[in-house]
Amino acid sequence: MEKDTKKILTLKTIDKRMTDRKSGNMEKFGFQATMEELKEKGVTVAEVVTDAHLGIGALMSKSFEFKSNLL
């Protein structure tokens, strides 16, 4: 969601079949697909809010050059 306009920029529906039938991988897969789509569209992402999923934190710092701010 874009902060000022409150508009949803993209939405992904993930099926377990896309993640080797492992529901634990779905959140990370969906996050990566969403970030890649936003990057392709030229959207600059300044902040990401998650539920502190460790896989997403690692993916953010490795693939998308974010610094984790986990407490």
SSE topology sketch:
Layout: H1 26-40, H2 54-63
Output the radius of gyration. Answer: 13 Å
DSSP strand count: 0
Helix proportion: 25-40%
Number of domains: 1
- End-to-end C-alpha gap: 23 Å
Query: What share of residues are in beta strands?
Result: under 5%
Structural class: mainly alpha
H-E string? HH
Q: Uncertain segments of ≥5 residues (pLDDT<50)?
A: none
Described by its quaternary structure, the protein is: single chain
Could you report the average pLDDT, rounded to the nearest whole number?
Answer: 84
How many helical elements? 2
The biggest beta sheet is recorded as: none
* 3D shape: globular
Give an overview in words.
By secondary structure, the chain is mainly alpha-helical. The chain has one domain. 35% of the residues lie in helices and 0% in strands. It is globular, with a radius of gyration of 13 Å.
Characteristic terms for this protein:
71 residues, mainly alpha, 35% helix, globular
Question: In short, what is this structure?
Answer:
The protein is mostly helical and 71 residues long.
